[in-house]
Amino acid sequence: MKNFFKKIVIAALTAEAKIVIRRYNPRIIAVTGSVGKTSAKDAIFAALKGSKKVRKSEKSYNSEFGVPLAILGCRSGWNNLLFWLYNLARGAWLASFSNSDYPEMLVLEIGADHPNDIRKITSWLKPDVAVVTRFPEVPVHIEFFGSRESVIAEKAHLVRELKQNGTFIANYDDDEVMALRSLTDARTFTFGMRLGADVLGSHPQFIMSHGERGTPIGITFRIDYKGSSIPVRIYGVLGRHHLYPALAALAVAINEGADLLSAVQALETFEAPTGRGRIIAGIKGATIIDDSYNASPVSMRATLEMLKDVPTEGRRIAVLGDMKELGIHTNEEHEKLGRFAAATLDILVTVGPFAKGIAKGALAAEMSEKNILQFDDSREAGKFLESVISEGDLILVKGSQAIRMERVTEELMAEPWRAGELLPRQEKEWLNHLQNH
C-alpha cells in the first residue's frame, strides 16, 4: 500500500510540475555529475540570486520525488499524509492560477541512484543549461549500475536532452565530462583549473584567521575570463575541490548575463551545504571540517589531500566512516584509502564494518597501530575523541549517509546547541529515525 501511494503521489506531483513548467516557462539550469552536485547547485544560486528571480532545489531534492517538489516550491512530507495532500493542493493551485512571484530561473539538482532515474526525469524536463561536475574512477552508487560507464551513460541523458539553443557547462578538467559534447548541438562553455578552460581558476590558497597564522577559515583563488583576472574568496570551507562548485557557478553566471564582479562578490557570502566540508569550531580549541553528508572514494581522497595541505599547529586527525554502495569495489577502495591516509594523518579513526578496510590499508602502509582507532558506532567514536583531541588539532569527519558521521561532529563541536543549524540530517524525521538505528 505504501509503494502504491508513493507511485500515485509521484505521478501527481510530476503532472503538476509539467503544467507549471509550461505555464511559467522558467529557465531550467540542471546540475548533475557524481561529485559536487549539491555544492555546485547552491553556489550557482548564490551567484545568480542578486540579479535574477531564481529558486534552487532544497537540500538534495534531486530524484523523481525531489525535482517536482523543487519546481512546485514544496518540501518533503515524509510520512505525513496530510502534508503530502497539502503539497498536491499547492501544486494544483500553482498549475491552475497565475502567480507573478514564480521564479524566472530554476536551479535543479538531478541525481541518479539507480538506472533510468535521469532518463525518467528528462523525458519531460528539458534543460536550458546542463552543468556536469565530475566523474570519478569509482562513482558513488556504482553498486546499482554495474560499471562506471553505465553511471556516466545515465548522467549523459541530461546533456542529450538539452534544448537546441541551450548551453552545456562542462568541467574542462574531466575528460569524461568533456566527451559528452558529442551528444548535443548546444553550445559548450567550460570551467576548470587546466589551461584552456573558458572560465579558469588558479592560485588557490588558504585564508587564515590571523594572516599566515591562526586557524583556517576559507580559501581564495583567482578567476580569469576574457582578459579579466579577479580574486575570489569563499569562507567556511577548505580544499581545492571546493573551487569547482564556485567556478561552475561563475560560468553559469557569465552564461546568463549576470555581472561577473557582482557574482564573485556574492560567492563571498555563500555558505556550503551542511555536511559538505564546513568549518566548525570544536571543543578545546580544535577545528572540525564536517564533511559528514556522504562519501565516495574520490571525495574521501580529496578531503584527505586538503587536510595534508592545511597549515595547523596541532595534529591532523581523520574520522572516516564506511563508503557505501561500492559493490565489488568495496574492499579494494577502503584499503586504498587507508594506504593514502597513512601518509597524511597523525591519527586515523574508523567507524563501521567496511571502514575496517581503511585501518587495514593504513597498517599495511606502516602507520603505527597505536595511532589507529576503530569503532562500530559513530557516537561512540565521538565520545572517545572528546578525551583525545587538544588545542590546534584539525579534525576531518566524513563517511556515507548510513553511518551517520554527523554524530561524531555533534559530540566534538564547541556549540552543540547549533547542531540543527550546522549539521545535516537534523530534521525531526531523521532524528526519530536515528533513535531507532
Kindly report the average pLDDT value: 91
Helix content: 25-40%
Hey, roughly how much beta strand do the residues contain? Answer: 15-25%
N-to-C CA distance: 24 Å
CATH architecture of the largest domain: 3-Layer(aba) Sandwich
CATH topology of the largest domain: UDP-N-acetylmuramoyl-L-alanine:D-glutamate ligase
Radius of gyration: 22 Å
Number of spatially distinct domains: 2
- Give me the count of strands: 15
Main sheet strand line-up: 2-3-1-4-5-6-7-8-9
Which residues sit in consecutive blocks of at least 5 with pLDDT less than 50? none
The biggest beta sheet reads: 9 strands, mixed
**Structural class per helix/strand content?**
alpha/beta
CATH superfamily of the largest domain: Mur-like, catalytic domain
The first-level CATH class name of the largest domain: Alpha Beta
Number of helices: 16
Coarse shape: globular
Question: What do these coordinates show?
Answer:
- This protein has 437 residues and is an alpha/beta fold.
- It has two domains: 2-267, UDP-N-acetylmuramoyl-L-alanine:D-glutamate ligase; 278-435, Mur ligase, C-terminal domain (Protein-Tyrosine Phosphatase, Chain A), CATH 3.90.190.20.
- 38% of the residues lie in helices and 21% in strands.
- The protein contains 16 helices and 15 strands.
- The strands form two sheets. A nine-stranded mixed sheet has the order 2-3-1-4-5-6-7-8-9, with helices on both faces. Strands 10-11-15-12-13-14 form a six-stranded mixed sheet, sandwiched between helices.
- It is globular and about 65 Å long.
- It starts with a helix and ends with a helix.
- The mean pLDDT is 91.
